[in-house]
Design goal:
The structure is a single chain. The chain is mainly β. Strands 2, 4, 5, 6, 9, 10 and 11 form a 7-stranded mixed β-sheet that branches. It has a 4-stranded antiparallel β-sheet with strand order 1-3-8-7, with no helix packed on it. The longest helix is centred in the C-terminal third of the chain and has 5 residues. The chain is globular and about 40 Å long.
Length: 122
């Protein structure tokens, strides 16, 4: 099982940018899809973005398309989420996840991180 640990969450003003990182255990990291999810207060966990093993395909929720970018560096066993033009409604706990991208897009994953808090102030 892949071990995942997120970092980078903090308080940021609306319109600002933030980059999240997710470090993964090395074993089979490069062969598995990765994704980001978020859970806002009082809501369920929602898909944000996913990337396949060789970065040839990426997928985004409509709410973040054009503002967020997912990427990965297999040499560093790390996946990233660059978030631009942040809005207060982006406030949530952000989770890194591992699994086939088709599975990630429907809210399922083989492994989950513990989450990192992102707060966007208006």
């Amino acid at each position: 099982q892949v071990q995942l640990e997120e970092s980078g969450g903090r308080l940021v003003q609306a319109g600002g940018s933030l980059s999240l990182s997710c470090a993964a255990s090395p074993r089979t990291f490069s062969t598995i899809g990765k994704g980001w999810f978020r859970q806002a207060p009082g809501k369920g966990r929602a898909f944000v973005a996913a990337i396949n093993w060789d970065s040839s395909s990426t997928y985004y929720a409509d709410s973040v398309k054009g503002r967020f970018t997912i990427s990965r560096d297999n040499a560093k066993n790390t996946v990233y989420l660059q978030m631009n033009r942040l809005k207060p409604e982006d406030t949530a706990v952000y989770y890194c996840a591992s699994g086939p991208t088709g599975k990630l897009q429907i809210g399922l994953a083989d492994s989950w991180g513990q989450g990192t808090q992102v707060t966007v102030s208006s």
